[in-house]
Design goal:
Distance between the termini of chain A: 58 Å
Largest sheet of chain A: 7 strands, mixed
Number of helices of chain B: 7
Strand order of the largest sheet of chain A: 10-9-11-13-14-8-15
Strand order of the largest sheet of chain B: 1-2
Order of helices and strands of chain A: EHEHEEEEEHHHHHEHHEEHHHHEEEEHEH
Number of domains of chain A: 2
Largest interface: A-B, 57 and 42 residues
Radius of gyration of chain A: 23 Å
Strand content of chain A: 15-25%
Structural class of chain B: mainly alpha
Distance between the termini of chain B: 57 Å
CATH topology of the largest domain in chain A: Chloramphenicol Acetyltransferase
Helix content of chain A: 25-40%
CATH superfamily of the largest domain in chain A: Nonribosomal peptide synthetase, condensation domain
Number of strands of chain A: 15
Shape of chain A: globular
Largest sheet of chain B: 2 strands, antiparallel
Radius of gyration of chain B: 29 Å
Number of helices of chain A: 15
Oligomer: heterodimer
Strand content of chain B: under 5%
Order of helices and strands of chain B: EEHHHHHHH
Structural class of chain A: alpha+beta
Chain lengths: ~475, ~220
């Protein structure tokens, strides 16, 4: 009998498991709008073919005494009609489900992935292969006599690479070299981390994770409040616009697209925030794709996050224009995004999980500590963003794909942007019913003449009610 | 496509008001385009049966205490009702929580039922029925139940083997009672211990390698 293979979780996955909730399911979704209505049978065929070569996606998540782990599974994934709220829970601790699902609705194919399995870049590779396999089967007449290039990245083994473990960790002598010293260090570090956590849960926000030194933030980080949706689903607002027009606006203030969008998001929140309590800081969490800095073909998580912020009312006579927000963000990006800084931070994160004493703590306690650490980190954040950049598919299939969308489950207002061809899509997800921030953001673009098409999901009794009355 | 004049955006879907600013949009004579999001009805958990049972439990405990105040008796029977219901709810809670993993659920039930029987035996005035009969019978029937369930439910060996081992180890506990001379009726204990020994010998011989890999997986540090 063949034994099931298993692998350890990577560094980033561990935090997702400890901090998932019924609202923030840690599931993200990549969608593609294609030319015609989806044919589910052909999509299933394409999925079967794709699944065969993405071995990483064959795993289920299991719980051990000390850590979670991923275990091989024999299940066959089935395509489903999209009839649940987006990014619905995928993992349940006593069910052995695959950690992704493929959905379809009208002309869209959705790939939903539990973040423990993979990050956006990894999932995009899967989606790319899926779309390729779907398109050549859906339009056989077009592809009949063409030589095709099957999309793929690296070797099968590289897909499974835990790049965190390969690049980062304790430098110099190994862990076992000075056990006594390692133990003392561990005790003091954990003590400090928990201490910080306790302080910031009861009092002001303090950034614990995300900083190489434990700097405390004295500034008042604003938190968006709102009405949560009745059944905890996310509010989705999707904005679709021509990328050139937005790029023109970004270049006019001398910055990149992703910094410009971040600045708009910050300002959209500020327009709606109470001003009477003095200077207000809005902090944003931004993911960094580490594959851009450290060579890796891993389909697993290989990213880090950084925190950028902007404090209003401290920019002198120049004021808080979008331009000055962009300039401030630009500087922060430049400062944090160096190989050396990333390395320093990730080495430290990795060194926690290398410590024997931490490893010997049972899993539920680890989860609890991570949850507390995460709660402190959240107190220092207002928003999250994620820019997946420009995606180009193999030239044969690219014309059949109209647009791409990215969404992710959110504990705070968030947007994910992705660009394909001449279209940019910005998808907002939020745990709150209100759409004021999204409106502010979109109106700043439409006021400058960018044509925007908006779609939103229905999340409350009133909206569902209005609908049924209207029919 | 519908359009909001305030936000200057085109809107997908048949919205009567703009989803962004909530102001009405013009619907007359304008074709609307399909929304990319399906209208998913709001969903809530409906545990009505559970709520009724909790309600009845709480009420019956409260009423029995009131009745006891009015017509006092020698035995403090309302307490028995309270503990009885608490025990029942504990057992039910474990079954519900572990319903997706039947062998794990059996191991939890062995431990819970054994503990509860000792507590009850102690509370009603120790006569030793818990260790003489209850625990050995729970252990042996649990082993039998496990043996049957892994065949009926068609489980994968890797997934249940460790729970099987744990149940077998628990079934060995009555042997301790015999050794310490705590019991007066050894037959049920001997049945439980014999079953346990059969399992404890069979599992390593037939599934030894598997046990080791399973332990490596679940205990990796």
């Amino acid at each position: 009998m063949a034994r099931k293979k298993w692998i350890r979780l990577d560094n980033a996955s561990k935090i997702f498991l400890a901090t998932m909730t019924s609202t923030d399911t840690k599931v993200f979704r990549l969608s593609a709008a294609v030319r015609d209505e989806i044919d589910p049978d052909i999509l299933q065929e394409a999925l079967d073919e794709t699944y065969q070569y993405h071995r990483l996606y064959h795993v289920v998540l299991r719980r051990g005494i000390f850590w979670y782990y991923l275990e091989d599974s024999e299940q066959r994934p089935l395509v489903q009609l999209d009839d649940q709220p987006a990014c619905a829970e995928i993992y349940h601790h006593d069910e052995k489900n695959l950690l992704f699902r493929v959905l379809y609705y009208r002309n869209r194919i959705h790939l939903e992935v539990f973040h423990v399995l993979s990050d956006g870049t990894g999932a995009l590779w899967f989606l790319e292969t899926l779309l390729y396999n779907y398109t050549i089967r859906r339009y056989p007449e077009v592809f009949q006599n063409k030589a095709l290039n099957y999309p793929g990245k690296g070797s099968q083994k590289q897909q499974f690479d835990d790049s965190f473990a390969r690049y980062f960790g304790h430098e110099g002598e190994g862990l076992w070299a000075h056990p006594a010293q390692a133990t003392i260090e561990t005790v003091t570090r954990v003590g400090k981390a928990v201490g910080h956590a306790a302080i910031s849960v009861s009092g002001r926000a303090i950034g614990v994770a995300g900083q190489t030194t434990h700097k405390s933030y004295k500034e008042r980080v604003y938190h968006v409040r709102g009405t949560t949706t009745p059944d905890n689903r996310m509010r989705l607002v999707e904005a679709d616009m021509p990328v050139d027009e937005v790029l023109r606006l970004a270049h006019a203030v001398g910055t990149s697209l992703s910094v410009y969008l971040t600045a708009l998001f910050i300002d959209a929140v500020y327009q709606d925030a109470p001003r009477h309590k003095g200077p207000l800081t809005i902090a944003v969490s931004v993911p960094v794709n580490l594959r851009n800095y450290f060579k890796s073909n891993s389909a697993r998580n290989f990213f880090s996050t950084m925190r950028v912020k902007y404090t209003y009312g401290q920019n002198g006579p120049e004021g808080d224009s979008i331009e000055s927000i962009c300039r401030s963000l630009d500087n922060q990006f430049k400062e944090q995004l160096t190989e050396e800084n990333l390395k320093k931070r990730l080495n430290q994160l990795r060194s926690y999980e290398e410590k024997l004493l931490i490893r010997l703590v049972i899993r539920p306690v680890k989860d609890l500590v991570l949850r507390v650490a995460n709660a402190c980190r959240n107190r220092a954040l207002t928003l999250s963003i994620s820019n997946m950049g420009r995606v180009v598919f193999p030239e044969e299939v690219d014309p059949f794909i109209k647009q791409l969308y990215a969404q992710t489950s959110a504990a705070r207002p968030q947007f994910s942007s992705i660009c394909h061809g001449d279209r940019l899509t910005v998808c907002f997800t939020s745990p709150f019913v209100e759409t004021e921030i999204q409106r502010n953001f979109i109106c700043m673009l439409t006021d400058q003449g960018v044509p925007v098409t908006v779609a939103a999901n229905r999340v409350s009794f009133e909206e569902n009610f209005v609908k049924s009355e209207g029919v | 496509m519908r359009r909001c004049q305030h936000c200057k955006v085109d809107i997908l879907g048949d919205w009567d008001s703009c989803p962004l600013c909530l102001n009405p949009v013009q619907t007359q004579g304008i074709e609307w385009q399909e929304s990319p999001f399906p209208d998913v009805p709001l969903r809530f958990h409906k545990y009505l049966a559970l709520k009724i049972l909790i309600f009845l439990s709480v009420i019956s405990v409260a009423l029995s205490f009131i009745a006891y105040q009015i017509w006092p008796t020698q035995t403090r029977w309302p307490w028995l009702i309270l503990f009885g219901l608490l025990s029942m709810w504990l057992i039910v809670a474990v079954i519900i929580r572990k319903r997706r993993n039947i062998t794990k659920s059996i191991v939890y039930e062995i431990a819970l039922l054994s503990l509860l029987s000792v507590l009850w035996d102690y509370y009603i005035g120790w006569s030793g029925w818990s260790i003489n009969y209850a625990i050995p019978i729970v252990c042996s029937s649990a082993l039998a139940a496990m043996f049957v369930s892994v065949r009926v439910v068609d489980l994968v060996v890797e997934d249940y083997i460790l729970y099987f081992l744990m149940a077998a180890l628990l079934a060995l506990i009555p042997f301790l009672f015999v050794l310490l001379g705590w019991i007066s009726q050894p037959i049920p204990s001997f049945v439980s211990v014999s079953l346990s020994i059969i399992m404890l010998v069979a599992i390593p011989i037939f599934r030894g390698r598997l046990i080791i890999t399973e332990l490596q997986k679940r205990m990796h540090i």
